[in-house]
Specification:
Length: about 400
């Protein structure tokens, strides 16, 4: 039966973890996978999460099946975060939101629904994008292409190229956009540039799919979600996937969501019924624990305030590490302009290093980043920074 099965390639990022774990270099540093580590290099358990879990444990409940679209209070909390609690389109019941198995699950539910709706649509992702975007939409049955995004020479965004590609796209083309903290480059569009993208998407009849996996890691919860308001104001129908993996440090619980903005309450009810079919035929209904924790944190004022404080702490620590990395590289003799590092937003920095330089970082210094040149700034700390800066400076000379 399996004789003809070929070995699948490893995920380029998760595969790096295996290589890192097997490395015997005691000074090794993992800047590969997009995970936030605290100043001691530890994966944090947020206090708000621990408190919510303690409250749940103090009054343990049996675990029945959840509704297909998940915990109602959770879906409501997701909507509040993404669209703003006093959003007019929420009041008008124009948003269908379902609990999903991480941000990946939200993308997959949306992709499967879109495949039923518009099977011949082309999907456009950014060049480059999160590796899984291409694979996920391809496996959902779509042809996937890319629109220009990163401009290496400019150390920024090829905005004209992006706009030209979207203007040339056929009506119905699905456009996957990073709402904030672009993975892997760290370069985000300005609000004025977003205005132009929204206008183009609208004029060309494209289908926007916003992936928001890092809300709160750029400038703040509302600021990072501002692009959602711009799409709402346009009157367009659109998709938003949400992930709490990073913002709650709940990677393993798989907590996310999908929201679909529709034209009317009637359409929303129909769309929701179709999303539920996608979920039912894949895994019946979602798991309880992570979403219950997030729902309780977001809807309990004291826990919510604590979460916002802890999220701000992560955001500010990453920013401080960006500044410290630039200083350390300059001290180590790097003379090129490094201002791009502090212009980038979120967990990642496209360092501009070549695949060859990234491989040298691994083999000679035990510093693991992705061959694209992406490093996870959220994994830097006071202790590993000198090691990383010395290694980077050495391969940059
Ligand atoms: N989208 C982007 C851009 C990501 O970087 C990630 C990271 O993991 C995801 C989606 C998936 O999130 P999750 O781990 O919640 O599935
Ligand atoms: O880009 C990253 O590092 C994170 C984590 O298949 C990740 O988004 C990477 C690859 C993958 C799933 C998650």
């Amino acid at each position: 039966l399996f004789a003809a099965v070929e070995m699948a390639p490893r995920d380029p990022i998760l595969g790096l973890n295996e290589q890192f774990n097997a490395d015997t270099n005691p000074g090794k540093v993992n800047l590969g996978v997009g995970v936030y580590y605290d100043e001691n290099g530890k994966l944090p358990l947020l206090k708000c999460v621990a408190q919510a879990e303690a409250a749940l444990q103090a009054d343990p409940k049996a675990r029945g099946y959840l509704p297909i679209d998940g915990i109602a209070a959770y879906d409501k909390a997701v909507q509040g975060l993404v669209f703003g609690a006093d959003s007019a389109i929420l009041a008008a019941k124009r948003v269908a939101t379902v609990q999903a198995i991480g941000g990946t699950g939200g993308l997959k539910i949306g992709a499967d629904f879109l495949k039923r709706l518009n099977p011949n649509a082309l999907v456009l992702i950014s060049d480059p994008s999160w590796e899984n975007h291409r694979a996920l939409f391809t496996n959902a049955g779509f042809k996937v292409d890319a629109y220009p995004y990163y401009d290496a020479a400019k150390r920024g965004i090829n905005f004209d190229g992006m706009l030209t590609a979207l203007n040339a796209a056929q009506a119905g083309t699905i456009v996957v956009l990073h709402a904030c903290c672009h993975n892997p480059t760290g370069y985000d569009l300005t609000p004025a540039q977003w205005d132009q993208i929204v206008a183009t998407v609208k004029a060309r009849g494209l289908v926007p799919f916003l992936d928001m996996a890092y809300q709160g890691f750029g400038e703040g919860i509302a600021q990072d979600g501002a692009v959602i308001q711009q799409f709402v104001a346009s009157g367009l129908d659109f998709f938003v996937s949400t992930s709490f993996s990073k913002s709650f440090s709940l990677y393993g619980e798989r907590v996310g969501g999908l929201s679909v903005v529709c034209a009317t309450a009637e359409e929303t009810a129909k769309v929701l019924s179709q999303l539920k079919i996608v979920i039912r035929t894949n895994y019946s209904n979602p798991p309880t624990h992570g979403a219950q924790v997030v729902a309780n944190v977001l809807s309990t004022p004291a826990l919510r305030a604590l979460w916002e404080e802890e999220l701000a702490g992560m955001r500010l620590r990453i920013r401080a590490m960006r500044v410290a990395l630039v200083e350390a590289l300059q001290k180590a003799g790097v003379t090129q302009d490094l201002s791009f590092v502090t212009r980038q937003k979120g967990m990642f920095s496209y360092s501009g290093l070549s695949a060859e330089q990234m491989q040298r970082l691994r083999s000679e210094f035990g510093v693991y980043g992705v061959d694209s040149g992406r490093i996870c700034v959220a994994a830097l700390n006071e202790k590993n920074l000198p090691v990383v800066a010395a290694a980077m400076a050495a391969v940059m000379k």
